[in-house]
Amino acid sequence: MKLFKHITVLLLLLSTSFTFSQVEFEARVSKKKLGVNERLRVDFSMNEDGDNFNPPSFDDFHIIGGPNQSVSHSWINGKRTFKKTYSYFLSPKQQGQFNIGQATIEIEGETYSTSDIAITVTKAVSTFNDPNSPNTVPENSIHLVAEVSKTNPYLNEAITVVYKLYVSPTTGVSNWREIDSPKYNDFWSQNIDIKGLKIENGTYKGEDYRYVVLRKAVLYPQKTGELAIEPLTLDITIDIPTNRRDIFGGRLMSQAHKTVSAGRRTIKVKPLPEAGRPLDFSGAVGDFNFNVTTSKNSLNANESLQAKVEVSGKGNLKLFQLPKLTMPSSLEVYEPEHSEKVNTYLSGMQGTISDVYTVVPQYKGKYPIPTVSFSYFDLKTESYKRISSEELVIDVLEGPVYGASDNNIVAQGTDKQKVILSNDQFVFVKTEADLVPKESSDFFKSTGFWTGLLGPLLAIPLAIAFRRKKEERANDIVGNRLRKADRLAKRYLSEAKKALGNKEAFYVALEKALHNYLKAKLNIETNEFSKEKIKELLEERQVDQFAINEFDTLLEHCELARYTPITSVAMQQDYDKASRTIHTIDKQIK
Questions:
Q1: Residues 174 and 255 in one domain
Q2: Where, if anywhere, are coiled coils annotated (predicted)?
């Protein structure tokens, strides 16, 4: 009876421990029904710390904030309570019935997922109880405009798109973030760098506004017909005055978010006229000059010269081919080296493109290079123009004469001398072979025989040693975990490289790579991550302060870059810095 009582108590304790350690991972939303102009908050919460959190796609929503991460620990009556939450703030794209998909997390080697949540999006809400809502800001106070230089260009004619944000004098804007970047399908495009944003005064539809130029791009249409420029969409942080004042009497401001879009623009592209189109026209559109030049006009046989075919001017310089240079067959001509010295300004491409041919003459003589023609479409006169090069002559002063007899080749020099060929010129070739039969030997007791016999016996101890090493490695739990984390860091860094250009995916992958690398090297769990803890552990491992600061800066940038505009160049710099910092720490860590 006493033994039965002890077993009952033990089973009760085990079941209680299992109940307390049960993992919970769930999703909650601020509301399941909202207007198309309202915001939605989604929280993904867990009661145990996990790794490799993957949110749903949110295809039907704009992400205007997040992921924001919060962690809380508490001990009540000796019982530990842990909660970790990832929060997102969403804006619906349109009305309808939508689902918030499953999110996943890895906790102690197991993968957990949330349930789908149905969301109903209705038409815009007309009454707002929140006085600080962005919808209380007048609709005509903020405008995002895409100014297009020309809406009916010719094929391959340059047009410019300038994105301006207009803000009324009574409205304050403290920040903005791109939700959708403009897409230039069927255009060759080049963004123009803007060095520093400058606030200027101007007018929009007859009203006074302040404005700032956010983006500039040059486009060359590659198809005729109606082409679409997909809009730039921003999430604007608006400063809204409240009824409260500070101790000096100044009005206090509150912040809210508002989504603005430049709108979809349609460009009607005209085809180039068929009338008068030259047969050799290759698509050049603009205003050009054309030249064919050589580095020298006279030389000896087997020396080289360079012949350059060059087009300079203003137009679609990178989007057409240069005419080919034709040479006499007696000249040895190598494949041309293409060179481009082209700058792209707001007015379009300007510069020079060229093909440089290396030419090596084989025989003495004078060799004409025929004229070469280049055709282009002139936008000023809306007509085709042709430029022809001058005929050039290459004078080969010294060398063999083309067409001389093979048995009597005349060398061209100051003293001409006949080369007489002897009948014994091939005497060095043997016509009789001295072949000796090779003696055969028995395989038995040869080197190959003993190698085949003893090789398998010698391989047995090597196989035993390899198996023991493999078992030792399999039983090394800590080492295997570190190796796994190290592989994860390499894999995530590879994923970050693949995601260059996609800001959100790139910085999520980069942050995971940095975290998994530290786990592999410092043997710490995710919930121990903090700036102070990382700095302390790296200093203990004798890593220099510069590398520690670089690592800390990278982690901060991964967090900040999700909420601020970032360029592809900055992403590449962060990726290079991450690779360099991991390599430095790996060499220094003790």
A1: yes
A2: none
Kindly report the CATH number assigned to the domain that includes residue 554.
1.20.120.330
DSSP state of 444: T
Q: Which of 530, 290, 293 is nearest to 391 (CA)?
A: 293
Last residue of a domain, one of 102, 122, 142: 122
Q: What is the mean pLDDT of the chain?
A: 79
Band of pLDDT at residue 273, cut at 50, 70 and 90: very high
* Sheet containing strand 117-122, strands side by side: 33-35, 117-122, 96-100
How many helices, marked H, and strands, marked E, lie in the chain?
7, 30
Cβ-count burial 16-35 (b if 16+ within 10 Å, e if not) = eeeeeeeeebebebeeeebb
Torsion angle of the four alpha carbons 567, 572, 573, 577, in this order, in degrees rounded to the nearest 10: 140
* Residue 109 reports pLDDT greater than 70: yes
- Spatial contact of 162 and 131, defined as CB atoms under 8 Å apart: no
Q: Give the CATH number, domain containing residue 317.
A: 2.60.40
Asked if residue 206 belongs to a domain, the reply is yes
**Is the Cα dihedral 454, 459, 465, 471 positive or negative?**
negative
Q: How far is the C-alpha of 487 from the C-alpha of 448, rounded, in Å? A: 43
Q: Of 215, 200, 237, 235, nearest to 148 (Cα)?
A: 215
Same-domain status, 389 and 482:
no
- 301 contacts: CB under 8 Å, gap ≥ 6: 361, 362, 363, 364, 396, 398, 399, 400
Same domain, 114 and 138: no
Q: 111 with 138, same domain?
A: no
Helix, strand or coil for residue 409? coil
Same-domain pairing of 262 and 365:
no
Same-domain pairing of 237 and 202? yes
Residue 433 inside a domain? The answer is no
What is the domain range of residue 522? 477-588
Looking at the structure, do residues 258 and 182 belong to the same domain, yes or no? yes
Task: Judge if 250 and 143 occupy the same domain.
Answer: yes
Mean pLDDT of 493-512: 79
Can you give the pLDDT at residue 436?
62
* Pairing status of strand 251-261 against strand 373-378: unpaired
pLDDT in tens, 297-314: 899 988 999 999 999 999
Q: Is 103 exposed, middle or buried (0-12, 13-18, 19+ CB in 10 A)?
A: buried
Highest mean pLDDT among 127-136, 500-509, 518-527: 500-509
- Reported as a single tens digit per residue, the pLDDT across 182-241 is 889 999 999 998 888 888 999 988 888 999 999 999 999 999 999 999 989 888 888 776
Question: What pLDDT does residue 165 have?
Answer: 93
DSSP letters, 16-56, are HHHHHT---EEEEES-SEEETTS-EEEEEEESS--EEEE--
- Does residue 531 carry a pLDDT above 60? yes
Closest CA to 560 of 549, 548, 570: 570
Judge if pTM exceeds 0.85.
Answer: no
Q: Looking at the 3D structure of the chain, how many domains does it have?
A: 4
DSSP code string of 143-167: EEEEEES-SSPBTT--EEEEEEEEE
484 within some domain: yes
